[in-house]
Amino acid sequence: MADTPAKPVKNPRIPMPEQDPKVRARNFLEVPTGYTHKMAQDEAARCLQCKKPACVQGCPVGVDIPGFINLIAEGEMTKAIRHLWTMNALPAVCGRVCPQEIQCEGLCVVGKKGEPVAIGNLERYCADYERAHGTGELPPKAAPTGKKVAVVGSGPSGLTVAGDLIVRGHDVTIYEAFHKAGGVLVYGIPEFRLPKEIVAQEINFLERLGVKLICNAVVGRTVSLDELFDEGYDAIYVGVGAGLPRFMNIPGENLVGILSANEYLTRANLMKAYKFPDVDTPIPMGKKVVVLGAGNVAMDAARTAMRLGADNVKIVYRRSREEMPARAAEIHHAEEEGIEMFLLTNPTTYLGNDKGRLTGMVCLRMELGEPDDSGRRRPVPIKGSEFEIECDLCIVAVGSGANPLLTSETPDMRLNKWGYIIAEEKTGKTTKKGVWAGGDIVTGAATVILAMGAGRQAATSMHDYLMLGW
Amino acid sequence: MFKIVKREEMAEGTVILNEIEAPAIARKAKPGQFVILKANEDGERIPLTMAETDKAKGTITIIYMVVGKSTALFRDLKVGDSYQDVIGPLGKPTHLEKKGKVICIGGGTGVAVLHPITRAMKEIGNEVTCIIGARTKDLLILEKQMKEASHDLRVCTDDGSYGHHGFVTEVMKEVLEQGDIKEVVAIGPVPMMAAVCRITREYDVPTLVSLNPIMVDGTGMCGGCRVSVGGETKFACVDGPEFDGHKVDFDELWLRLQAYLEDEKKCHKEYCNLHKVQ
Ligand SMILES: Cc1cc2nc3c(=O)[nH]c(=O)nc-3n(C[C@H](O)[C@H](O)[C@H](O)COP(=O)(O)OP(=O)(O)OC[C@H]3O[C@@H](n4cnc5c(N)ncnc54)[C@H](O)[C@@H]3O)c2cc1C
Ligand code: SF4
Ligand code: FES
User: Fold this and answer.
1) Could you list the residue range(s) of the whole structural domain that residue A267 is in?
2) Does A260 share its domain with A281?
3) What digits encode the pLDDT tens for the residues B219-256?
4) Cβ(A270)–Cβ(A283) under 8 Å?
5) Does some domain include residue A372?
6) CA-CA distance, B118 to B102, in Å (whole number)?
7) Is A394 found in the same domain as A256?
8) Mutation pick for ligand 1 pocket among A157, A184, A196, A199 (CB with most ligand atoms within 8 Å)
9) How would residue B11 be classed by pLDDT, with cut points 50, 70 and 90?
10) Quick one: A259 and A345 in the same domain?
11) What band does B274 get if pLDDT is binned at 50, 70 and 90?
C-alpha cells in the first residue's frame, strides 16, 4: 500500500493497546492488553447502528453486532454479554482469533471511508469484562430429557455442541483423545494470542453446567462409535478436527530439527515445553529458524520460535503477500516482532550434517503465473534461482489433512475423497444413523467460528432427533 | 487417575514393573499395542508397549528401564500412587499367523514387549524358539515367563555369567542354520534389531521389529514418530509400531532418537540433584 500523507481521520478507530514488540518478542504474555472501559465505550460510539447492518452479513453465525455494541455504548455490560452468548458461545475466544478483516469488519460501512468499527476488540472486551466482573451465574437448564449424547473431540465445535445440548436437558459427555480439553485452542494457538486460562474457564463453565469430560479417550482405539451406542448413547457428535500434519515430501525431511507445526506447537502449548526444564517435555531451541507456510499456524510457530530465543526467524512461502492466509493482525504482529518474510520462495531440499541434523535448505525463487484451481495465481519456479538458507530448525506449517484414526474404524460413515466426513450442510447429519459431524473434520482446516457455527446447527438437529426422531 | 496396584523391581532395580488399573484400555488391548503415560501435570508423555493385560481385573502391565528423568519419576511412584494420564491402546496389534517355526528374539526391556507376542505365537500353533539376552545375569528379565511362553528358550549374556557367552544374534544364527525358520520377531535396542535384520536378510527370513521412536500424541497428529520404511515415511504410532525389519532405516531411527539427548541429560541431572540419587 502506498502511504498517502494522511488527512487526519475525523473519527479514528481506538487502537488496541499492545505490549511493545521488542519486549513481547521474548515473552509469552498476551500481546494485546485489552481496551479500558472508556476506550470500549468510545469505540462503541463509532458504530452507526445501521438498520441493515452489513457487518452481520459477514459473520458466519450472524451475531447481532449493532445490538451488542449498542449495549456497550449504554454501559449495559451484563446485558451485552448475555446478548452475545445467545449467538456465540465463546466470545472471549472469537474476539481474539476470528479473521474479522474478511468477515464483519471487512463489510462494516464505517470502513468504506476510514477504519471499520473494531468489532473484534469490542467482543473481546465484553467477554473479558464478564470474566472480571460477572457473577458466574449459570444459564437456566431445561428439565432432564433422559437422552444421552456423546461428543467426540473437545475443540470449539465439540464444546459448542456440548453447551447447546446440556442446557436443553440432555446428558452430555465429551470424549477427548488428549489429556486436556480444548482442541486447537489449547494445543495449537499459543498463550500470547489466547491465554489458556480463558479456555480453561470456558470448559469449567460447561462442567459446572453438568457436562462430563473424559480425557485420554481416543475414539476409534479406546472405544468405537458403535461401542458408545452400546453404552447407551442416543446420539453422537464427531468434531475431531483436521489433525493430520502435511509435510513437503522433499529430500531430507526426516533430519533432526524438522518438525511439523503440530508437534512444535503441541510441545510448546499443551506440554508447556517453553518452561523446560521446569516441565519435562523438551522442545528444540532453534537459533536460525525457518517456518514453511504463511497461515495462522505458521505465524504462531514463527512467533513462538522467536520467544524461545531464536536469533532470526524466517517465513518461507511460495506465493506472494496477497495470498498469505493468516489473519492480517498476525502478519502485522509477526513483522513487528522481527520475523522476516521470504515470499515467492519454495524449498526443494533440506541439508544436514553427519549427525543427521538439519543445517539448511535449498530454495528456489518463484514468480506468479496463470491462476490455478483456487483462483490464485500459480507460483512457478524461476530457472537457476537456487539459493541456500542456513537454519538449525525448520517448522513445517503447510496445512493439515483428515486423521483417519476414527474414520477408518467406522466403515459405515461415508467420507469424501480427501478423507473428510460427509455431512449435510444445514444439519451436520452424517451417513451413519445417530451420528453428526462438524468443524475441521468436515470442512478441512478452517476457522474457530465456522467450527462453532457447525456445532450450533448440529446441536439443533440433534435436539430435534432426540425429541422427535431421525 | 490410573492407580498402580502392583510394583516390582527387576534387574537390580534398573527395570521396574507396574501393574496399573486401566479397565477401558485392558478391555481392548492386543499384543503389540502400546500406551502413553504421563506421571503428573508437568510430566512428559512417554510411550511404552504393554507387557501384559488382564481384562478380568481391568489392569495393564508395563515394564520399563529407568533411563531419564521421566522414567525416574515413574520409578518413584509406589503401589497406591497413580499416573495422571494413561492413553491407549495405541498402534496396530501384532499380525499373528500360523507359519511353522519362528524365532522370537529380545534384548533389554524388549523382552517384556516380546513376551505377550511370543505367547500368542505359541498359542496359535507356531513352534517358537525364544532367544533373550542381557549384559549380565542379574540384568536378565522374565526368564521363567519366556520359558513358559515358548517351546525352547535360549539365554545369552554379554559377559558369560549365564547361558551362552555372547550376543543373541550368534545364537540366532545357529538356529537359522538348522533351517526352515519362517519368521523372526525381534524386539530390543535399535542396534540389536539392526544386527538381527542384517543376518535374517542373508537367510531371507521375514523379520518383524517393534520401533520406539520419540512420540508426543501417539494418534498420528504430530509426525514426531516418523520413520523411513522401504523409502517411505511412516508414522510409527499409527502405521506401526511393528514393521518389516528388512525395510526399516535403522540409522535414521538411531539419529532421530538422539534429538533431545542433551536436554534429557540436563533435566535428569537436575532431578537427581534435587532428589539426592545418582
Ligand atoms: C496453530 C493454529 C492456529 C490457528 N489460528 C486460528 C485463528 O487465529 N483463527 C481461527 O478462526 N482459526 C484458527 N485456527 C483454526 C481453528 O483452530 C480450527 O479451525 C478449529 O479449532 C477447528 O475446531 P474443531 O472443533 O473442528 O477441531 P479441533 O479444535 O481440532 O479439536 C478437535 C479435538 O478432537 C480431538 N480428537 C481428535 N481425534 C480424536 C479421537 N479419535 N477421539 C477423541 N478425540 C479426538 C483432538 O485432540 C482435539 O482436541 C488455527 C489452527 C491452528 C492449528
Ligand atoms: S456495519 Fe459497522 S457501523 Fe454498521 S452496524 Fe455493523 S459495526 Fe456498526
Ligand atoms: S506420535 Fe505424533 S504422530 Fe505419532
Assistant:
1) 246-400
2) yes
3) 999 999 999 999 999 999 999 899 999 999 999 999 99
4) no
5) yes
6) 9
7) yes
8) A184
9) confident
10) yes
11) low
List the A212-214 sheet strands across, edge first: A212-214, A171-175, A148-152, A235-238, A435-437
Angle between the N-to-C axes of helices B168-177 and B190-203, in degrees from 0 to 180, rounded to the nearest 10: 20
**C-alpha cell of residue A353:** 550434517
**What spacing in Å lies between the alpha carbon of A458 and ligand 3's midpoint?**
30
pLDDT tens per residue across span A209-261: 999 999 999 999 999 999 999 999 999 999 999 989 999 999 999 999 999 99
Spatial neighbors of A195 by CB under 8 A, at least 6 apart, are A30
Q: Are A429 and A436 in contact (CB under 8 A)?
A: yes
Same domain, residue pair A250 and A392? yes
Cα dist from A154 to A143, A243, A463, B244, whole Å? 25, 13, 19, 36
Q: Which three cell numbers stand for residue A426?
A: 444445514
Of all residues in chain A, the one with the smallest CA distance to B219 is A405
Strand order in the sheet with B85-90: B46-49, B34-38, B85-90
- Is A426 found in the same domain as A458? yes
- CA A101 to ligand 2 centroid distance, Å: 13
Least confident of A263-267, B35-39, B168-172: B168-172
pLDDT > 90: what percent of chain A?
84
Question: Cell 458504530, residue?
Answer: A47
Determine how β-strand B181-187 pairs with β-strand B207-210.
Answer: parallel
For position A299, which CATH number holds?
3.50.50.60
What are the structural domains, with CATH classification, of chain B?
2-90 (2.40.30.10), 95-210 (3.40.50.80), 211-278 (no CATH)
Residue A351, classed as helix, strand or coil, is strand
What's the grid cell of residue A82? 448475555
* Angle between helix A119-133 and helix A77-85 axes, rounded to 10 deg: 110
Kindly report the number of other CB atoms within 10 A of residue A36's CB atom.
12
Over residues B65-81, the pLDDT tens digits come to: 888 888 888 988 999 99
Q: Does ligand 3 lie within 6 Å of residue B235's CB atom? A: yes
Give the cell for residue B18: 507396574
Predicted pLDDT of residue A9: 60
Of A372, A400, A428, the domain-final residue: A400
Query: Relative to the alpha carbon of A45, which ligand is closest?
Result: 2
Nearest to A245 among B69, B222, B270 (CB): B222
Q: DSSP for B106-133, please give it.
A: EETTHHHHHHHHHHHHHHTT-EEEEEEE
pTM: 0.92
**Residue A171 cell numbers, joined:** 446428558
DSSP A382-432: PTT--EEEE-SEEEE-S-EE--HHHHTT-TTS-B-TTSPBP--TTT-B-SS
Residues of B in contact with A256 (CB under 8 A): 255-256, 258-259
